[in-house]
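Quick question: what would this complex look like in 3D?
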Amino acid sequence: MADLSIKIHDILFKNPVLTASGTCGFGKEIQDFVNLESLGGVVMKGTTLNPREGNSYPRMAETPSGMLNAVGLQNKGVDNFVRNIYPGIKDIDTHFIVNVNGSTIEEYIAVTERINELEKIPAIELNISCPNVKEGGMAFGVSCPAAEAVVKAVRKVYNKTLIVKLSPNITSITEIAKVCEAQGADSVSLINTLLGMAVDAEKRKPVLSTVTGGLSGPAVKPIALRMVWQVHNAVKIPIIGMGGIMNATDAIEFILAGASAVQIGTGIFKDPDIFEKTISGIESYLDRHKLHSISELIGKLQM
Amino acid sequence: MADLSIKIHDILFKNPVLTASGTCGFGKEIQDFVNLESLGGVVMKGTTLNPREGNSYPRMAETPSGMLNAVGLQNKGVDNFVRNIYPGIKDIDTHFIVNVNGSTIEEYIAVTERINELEKIPAIELNISCPNVKEGGMAFGVSCPAAEAVVKAVRKVYNKTLIVKLSPNITSITEIAKVCEAQGADSVSLINTLLGMAVDAEKRKPVLSTVTGGLSGPAVKPIALRMVWQVHNAVKIPIIGMGGIMNATDAIEFILAGASAVQIGTGIFKDPDIFEKTISGIESYLDRHKLHSISELIGKLQM
Amino acid sequence: MQQVAAFILLRNILHRIIFALKSVNMRKTVSDLLLIDNKQLNKDNFLLKLQSKTPLSDIFPGQFVNVEIKKATEIFLRRPFSIMDVDYENRTISLLVKILGRGSKVFTEYIPGELVSVIFPLGKPFTLPLPNDRILLIGGGSGVAPMLFLAKICGLKPEQVHMILGARSATDHVDISEYEGLANLYYATEDGSKGEKGFVTHHPLFTHQLESFDKIYTCGPDPMMKAVAKEAYKRKLFCEVSLENTMACGFGVCLCCVEDTKHGNLCVCTEGPVFNINDLKWQI
Amino acid sequence: MQQVAAFILLRNILHRIIFALKSVNMRKTVSDLLLIDNKQLNKDNFLLKLQSKTPLSDIFPGQFVNVEIKKATEIFLRRPFSIMDVDYENRTISLLVKILGRGSKVFTEYIPGELVSVIFPLGKPFTLPLPNDRILLIGGGSGVAPMLFLAKICGLKPEQVHMILGARSATDHVDISEYEGLANLYYATEDGSKGEKGFVTHHPLFTHQLESFDKIYTCGPDPMMKAVAKEAYKRKLFCEVSLENTMACGFGVCLCCVEDTKHGNLCVCTEGPVFNINDLKWQI
Ligand SMILES: Cc1cc2nc3c(=O)[nH]c(=O)nc-3n(C[C@H](O)[C@H](O)[C@H](O)COP(=O)(O)OP(=O)(O)OC[C@H]3O[C@@H](n4cnc5c(N)ncnc54)[C@H](O)[C@@H]3O)c2cc1C
Ligand SMILES: Cc1cc2nc3c(=O)[nH]c(=O)nc-3n(C[C@H](O)[C@H](O)[C@H](O)COP(=O)(O)OP(=O)(O)OC[C@H]3O[C@@H](n4cnc5c(N)ncnc54)[C@H](O)[C@@H]3O)c2cc1C
Ligand SMILES: Cc1cc2nc3c(=O)[nH]c(=O)nc-3n(C[C@H](O)[C@H](O)[C@H](O)COP(=O)(O)O)c2cc1C
Ligand SMILES: Cc1cc2nc3c(=O)[nH]c(=O)nc-3n(C[C@H](O)[C@H](O)[C@H](O)COP(=O)(O)O)c2cc1C
Ligand code: FES
Ligand code: FES
């Protein structure tokens, strides 16, 4: 049986399949469907310094093979995470990763410092790509100087694994990836959602309260694959790929394009069994192709 | 019965529905299905100075609610157009628009000058956004100085209606749109295809001979709508919107977001009757909503 | 009949105990259910019956399912529907599906024998009435589904249960004669073609006797529920409504379905769909 | 039988005249055809019969249809299939559909009575043989479909028509007994379970008698067609192949289906799918 484990910096993941931030809560919420210990890891809902109510309803629009969301980082703040959520997850045998957000560099630093204290959180995913907040978020992810500043600042206060989550709403994603690498990021994850919009023709109104929202799901997969492949050719740090993964075949496509691990987000809304199916599907793919480990696939696209 | 006509610069279109470049040949190819004279206009296949063979097969990959193409501007060159195609279309009662391409500014100018001589071509669509050619193409559409240079140069030699076709593979589409407006473009059309990629997991190879290709179809509609809306809020010149339009409702969504006209591309591959259905659908929408003309809808999204 | 009523009462009490013990933590599952019946009730409404291979867990009125509609090119997300009835013995659940758009349309075209992927049971149910309560159920459109389910398993005597059903016209009402023994049924139609003319809130039972009820439950179009809530709130009556905010996941992870409540943005799929009107920001 | 043959010959001659007159400019249409039959032939192959409301235009072997497969969430483009047979009287066309991926799978699950949107007739057909030609037809997999159609309407006497059908194993061969009177049929299977063991190009008729044929036609997997083309080319024999490049539109506007020929990139959907091997860059 093939070895599904992979390494991102100094963390060994059982398998390359993680939950994507904002789509599986803090893990506990999906326990009815998913044995959390069978996952490579759980990237939790975006966390900010202070509690946030997020944007007004409606926050969601279905689109062809995808959806727009405009949740806007609704969460109870990092204190609540440390006090009420961390104790409940710290003994579960998988890697829990905190998705760190902020409106200012100071906020990113403050959240990171709180998380740094938590023994059982081996990594943070620095979200510089949320398209659904007025301040911060994506603004940091679509400008090289801004990305440089925030990654540098966070790197200074964080000595565990630092993953930076990149925005696809950009002319050249490789430039941002290179900046993150240069500032000491241990890994980049991509893609966050694409800025999109939905219109209700009958009501002649935008569907979302915020007009625009973030596009995810299979619709974005070709764009995500292209970006993973581009970044793979541009940096040496490991890549965590995502965007529209619905099954093991999709996951393999990302790994071939250069991802060491993948995250699944929107897919769970359609099929809560998606993690189990994807992990076992990757296993049988490896067996069928007579491969001994995932590493034999990473970036191994034949040109 | 409502008035479907719209104006782009000094051209009056019977209705706001045009074919998108590269998806309906030069018009003649779809005559079995479509009465060309019922269309607002026909934007023809991308034309270059010299004949081009385009990229190697495979050039196409189906994706969720969309497709990737890597045709790469296969065409017989502007001379062939002038000699063999123009005579066959010039007496058809609709507006034929040439999609002008080049690897260098000189090539853009040379093609434009040839087209300028043709009495019955009222407009060109300057394609600075083709993602499938090695030189030129999108390179002009994702950098403000490059876009500025090519639009300026072409504007100098062309005094009919100049439409510039924008690329979505960019951080801020409004900046490019503003540059085009400042250089005298009469209209902008958007979006061209999004750079994407498809992987064949079984063969462990890219599906396309060119690795990456251009994504079109319903999958991109949310992104296209967002960009049309952004550009509508940034420039005063009329916008021609496109990207995933499959029916009248989709077309209305673009018009509400700010497009004066729309183009349909990939949609015809699925349904060759799409033009007829879309035009009559827009008509009944106007009637049902008791509107007298399209202009009452353009950009009229209630916020 | 009396035996049946006694049985229902017993089951209801049992349910209430189980429910309290589990504190609404019934395990959600995703499973392929077999469509065993699909009956068109009127122009837009269909009754679909789905059968599980395995025994059903306890299900309460107000809870819902989230259904994958695979057979249509253009549907991406699942579609939520309230549970209208449960038959534990035959392991079936019934749904009342009204054609609203593309997804509901295609779902009503499914043929018995086909498998449907369903996530259930989802959401928090209505608070069950106390044995001596006099209750008023108000259903509009497909909102009658959870009302009928509640009438059926609330365990009260028929004279304690009053139900007003609203629709645009007589032909929009579905046939619910099988519920006649369980409650006092009243109708309202906008065109007056069945029962009282006007909205449910124009029905004399509502306008004149509202305060005679201990609990009011409602499900239907937003304007209807808001009108009901307003009157109940004014009179400080117990009133629960079942919301239908659009959903992506249906099980509490996407945070898309939120309602702005007095306790902040709460997920309708997990904190609801049933809310006590005192928690909402509706009344003004 | 003789009458039938005479009739076919006549129709064939007529077709050839019409064909020449129209210079392959038969009008393409998109229409909803009624699926009237769907028969499973073996594990992966199905025979689907579609009926048109209006009379069919003339259709020739090698031409194809482009089918919309609406009933599956994940299919976006149409799928092309060769026309295997035409019944002008009953206005039906038959398709031989082999399950390859998602689209073909869902298509074979369609139930008689359903409507299918079809664009047809598409593409340039095989060159019909001359009255005295001795022809060899070589079909592999679903490539037998246009071969059978050609055998049926070529108007030659059965002794002039020889057909080798290749498959992996006997169980992959579809039953074509109804064609027995029209041609000499030979089989090849990779495992030897029916006819000669090996590929079609290992069949004695191919290895020893190839030069006795005036025209060779082939449709099937690329490696098979390439092997056939190579031998025919070496011997300067007339040989046409039918390509199956992936398509987006199927009617010549997207330029996605091109084959790199001696005349540059040509669209398989309009300049093909049938090509004379002399025009291709295959032989080396
Ligand atoms: C908890 C819950 C229980 C429900 N119970 C039932 C039930 O028992 N029976 C029943 O028939 N329906 C029920 N619904 C509503 C049902 O989910 C929608 O009718 C269905 O999702 C519409 O899908 P569609 O694809 O047909 O419509 P779409 O094509 O997606 O939409 C058509 C139009 O309706 C609007 N729309 C879609 N869904 C909603 C919604 N939830 N609220 C308001 N507007 C909407 C869209 O914006 C659009 O304008 C319930 C919804 C929820 C959240
Ligand atoms: C002119 C023409 C005539 C055809 N006639 C027939 C016919 O009579 N009967 C029949 O069964 N099939 C025929 N085919 C092939 C048929 O179109 C494909 O089998 C079908 O499109 C596959 O769709 P799918 O969704 O099942 O496979 P997908 O899920 O799209 O693909 C499954 C796998 O097959 C590959 N694939 C898909 N289509 C092709 C192709 N055209 N060539 C090579 N690889 C491909 C894909 O890359 C993928 O790896 C014909 C094709 C053409 C172009
Ligand atoms: C409802 C929703 C909420 C999300 N919230 C977050 C978030 O809090 N932080 C973050 O980094 N990404 C967030 N994302 C983005 C996802 O993590 C992921 O990057 C994106 O959805 C693409 O993957 P997918 O197509 O598999 O969903 C969210 C996505 C969705 C759909
Ligand atoms: C096969 C194909 C070929 C195309 N060729 C061109 C082209 O030559 N010039 C151009 O400006 N756009 C070209 N496009 C882009 C379309 O004109 C259009 O901008 C894009 O496809 C989005 O619209 P749609 O989703 O309706 O197809 C092409 C698109 C496709 C699918
Ligand atoms: S629908 Fe996802 S949280 Fe309610
Ligand atoms: S498939 Fe579009 S040109 Fe051939």
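Answer marked as accepted. Chain B has one domain: 6-54+72-195+217-296.
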